[in-house]
Design goal:
With 291 residues, this protein is of the alpha+beta class. A twelve-stranded antiparallel β-sheet has the order 1-2-4-5-6-3-9-12-11-10-8-7, with helices on one face.
Length: 291
């Protein structure tokens, strides 16, 4: 297992402080703000710790209220809203410096049989073996990839990413707001459904908001863009062991009012639809100082 993957599992293993109260930490990184997927994952861990075995998360809805400080621990307070015959509901508030930075509500369900259908995996997407990795994109396209993106991709990561569409990263062309990305966790995943759900929630925040910039020939890393996740919703359709590649198929139906909206479908490589995601984020053009 890579050191980055082991660190991710350690970060998602919260410390219990008291009844319904947990503490999480952030990785040591040059980024001052906490990655949104980390807060979603840690909050889901806190919620799961208060739910009876045999009930699995089927949906979560969350709001980002303040940027998290990666140099400080995050306190997660769980409210036990309901324990029903089939469903359990939890609310989690993430706190730093005495203020709420994030909130999440999650619903858990016992296993049940029912109707079953899904949209098929996109057929025009090449398999992961035929797509360049992020490191290979840097090696192949060199200076055509902006420096800040090269630095981001060059770091050792817990998640391998293979973007199918490269043009967004090598030009400023205005493109359809659609993206396909192959993703894979960089190490073995514990054979535990609760942990697998948390890791899936963690990766669901990757690349998503950037899709809403495609139609404008922009990128989240541009110096004149202020970007941040505002909310994040996720539906867990079917379990997956996360031991292979996942296709994250995304589109952005709308951007307006300094906000971008993006949807995502997460498929296993065999075509099984694992989860759906929706997110709205702040995409504000900064006023650059005049020369």
């Amino acid at each position: 297992m890579s050191p980055a993957m082991q660190e991710l599992l350690d970060i998602l293993d919260l410390e219990r402080l008291e009844h319904n109260l947990y503490r999480g930490r952030s990785p040591k990184t040059s980024w001052q703000r906490v990655f949104g997927g980390q807060v979603v994952g840690q909050a889901l861990v806190a919620a799961q710790r208060t739910v009876d075995a045999g009930r699995h998360v089927h949906s979560l809805h969350s709001y980002f209220m303040r940027p998290g400080d990666s140099s400080l621990p995050i306190i997660y307070e769980v409210e036990r809203l309901r324990d029903g015959g089939s469903f359990t509901t939890r609310r989690v508030t993430a706190i730093q410096n005495g203020e709420a930075i994030f909130s999440l509500e999650a619903s858990f369900q016992v296993e049940e049989e029912g109707l079953d259908h899904q949209l098929p995996i996109p057929l025009d997407v090449p398999p992961p073996d035929a797509v360049l990795s992020a490191h290979e994109v840097i090696e192949t396209y060199g200076e055509r990839v902006p420096e800040n993106i090269r630095r981001y991709w060059a770091r050792e990561r817990q998640v391998e990413m293979k973007p199918v569409f490269i043009e967004h990263y090598t030009s400023r062309a205005k493109l359809p707001p659609v993206q396909q990305v192959w993703i894979r966790l960089a190490g073995p995943v514990p054979d535990d459904r609760a942990t697998q759900s948390v890791l899936l929630a963690y990766v669901s925040d990757l690349t998503l908001l950037d899709t809403s910039t495609f139609a404008h020939g922009r990128a989240l890393f541009d110096s004149d863009i202020q970007a941040a996740s505002l909310d994040h919703a996720m539906w867990f359709h079917r379990p997956d062991k996360l031991d292979g590649w996942l296709l994250y198929s995304q589109d952005s139906p709308s951007a307006s009012g300094a906000r971008g909206f993006t949807r995502g479908l997460i498929y296993a490589q065999d075509g099984i639809l694992v989860a759906s995601v929706a997110q709205e984020g702040l995409i504000r053009l900064r006023r650059m100082p005049s020369s």
